[in-house]
Write a structure and sequence with these properties.
The protein has about 70 residues and is mostly helical. The chain contains 4 helices and no strands. α1 packs across α2.
Length: about 70
């Protein structure tokens, strides 16, 4: 079973979105951050998607409260 998609409490730089995605997909947070930064060089709504994930993804603490 893969890890749930949540923003972790530790190992976050701004909001923990890249760290949460990295945990979910089995990569390192640094790799995910580099991928995100490189994707920002391409046209598209990457930054808006990051902001949306920041708002919509539950934090690890909130996920634990609702998991029971």
């Amino acid at each position: 079973m893969s890890a749930p998609l949540v923003r972790p409490r530790n190992n976050k730089v701004i909001a923990g979105v890249c760290a949460g995605l990295a945990r979910r997909f089995g990569t390192t947070p640094t790799t995910m951050r580099v991928i995100f930064l490189l994707s920002c060089l391409l046209p598209g709504p990457q930054f808006l998607l990051y902001l949306a994930l920041w708002v919509l993804l539950p934090s690890e603490d909130e996920h634990r409260k609702t998991a029971w």
